[in-house]
Design a protein that fits this description.
- The protein is an alpha/beta fold and 257 residues long.
- It has a single domain, classed as NAD(P)-binding Rossmann-like Domain (Rossmann fold, 3-Layer(aba) Sandwich), CATH 3.40.50.720.
- A 7-stranded parallel beta sheet has the order 3-2-1-4-5-6-7, sandwiched between helices.
- It is globular, with a radius of gyration of 17 Å.
- Nicotinamide-adenine-dinucleotide binds next to helix 1 and helix 7.
Length: 257
């Protein structure tokens, strides 16, 4: 699998998955634009990629809920690397909102989570579609979640809703952009212990609770960030050229569509 001279824009590039996706793509020769609202983590993530000596990394401070910020990010990618070949819509999460009962969910919490996860995916896809159509080539991978399939035992309703809508968005945009040589797919991970979640998993769950959770995972292990990166890179590769509109479940067998 080679991504030599391809340019990949990774939103949420300073976070757990974003770091892993960036290293994996740059390790295969891609130049990566790491777009994140957190200036400190995105700088550090880009530095770590550049230290590896593969593809180059450009950090960009970007708020995916702002159309101007997203447009500026795509322009930065085009001006530095000359193309936007790959877009990974990864910025998101439940953003620390509480998992309230449905009759207690605030509009502010609803709007925040929908804006970052769903509107951000829309704005970034819209901004990348122009250059990709012009080039007649593109690969877009959106981050959904097992909670979109199975409901959110651990996550709030607005997160589950955004991740479910991303599956429909993926299917629709794949049909629209297919004739332009652009493949659009999604990955739906189960629980993955990124550095941020690992502490919560160890602190908030007893050993017994952790073992009980794993009993529901047919493969008997939680997926790693690298497992998710492997799926993302496959969907961006030539080996997946006939696959579009798919949401690939990567969860050890807890749910399969
Ligand atoms: N880790 C898991 O178990 C898991 C499971 C299923 C899906 N996912 C999804 O994968 C993606 C990455 O998750 P993660 O675990 O790496 O989370 P993370 O919190 O480590 O990373 C998310 C990144 O998004 C950035 N971000 C937040 N708001 C932003 C905004 N408005 N504009 C730009 N960037 C913004 C954050 O600064 C952070 O760096 C998310 O969409 C998440 O919902 C994660």
């Amino acid at each position: 699998m080679s991504f030599k001279d391809k340019c990949a824009v990774i939103t949420g590039g300073g976070g757990g998955f974003g770091n892993t996706f960036a290293r994996a793509l740059a390790g295969q020769g891609a130049n990566v634009v790491l777009a994140d609202v957190n200036a400190d983590t995105v700088e550090a993530a880009a530095q770590a990629v550049n230290d590896l000596g593969g593809g180059k990394a450009l950090p960009v401070v970007c708020d995916v809920t702002s159309a101007d910020s997203v447009e500026a990010t795509m322009e930065a990618a085009l001006s530095r690397f000359g193309s936007v070949d790959i877009l990974i819509n990864n910025a998101g999460g439940s953003l620390n909102v509480p998992k309230d009962a449905i009759d207690q969910v605030s509009e502010a919490d609803w709007d925040l989570v929908i804006a970052v996860n769903l509107k951000g995916t829309f704005l970034c896809t819209r901004a990348a579609a122009g250059p990709m159509k012009k080039a007649g080539y593109g690969r877009i991978v959106n981050l959904s979640s097992i909670t979109a399939r199975a409901g959110g035992q651990l996550t709030p309703v607005q997160y589950v809703s955004a991740k479910g809508a991303i599956i429909s968005f993926t299917r629709h945009v794949a049909q629209e952009l297919g004739p332009h040589g652009i493949n659009v797919n999604a990955v739906a991970p189960g629980l993955v212990l990124t550095p941020r979640l690992e502490g919560m998993w160890m602190e908030r769950k007893t050993e017994q609770e952790r073992q009980d959770y794993l009993k529901n995972v047919p493969l008997g292990r939680l997926s790693s960030p690298q497992d998710i990166a492997d799926a993302v890179l496959f969907l961006c590769s030539d080996q997946a050229k006939s696959i579009t509109g798919l949401t690939l479940d990567v969860n050890g067998g807890m749910y399969s569509a």
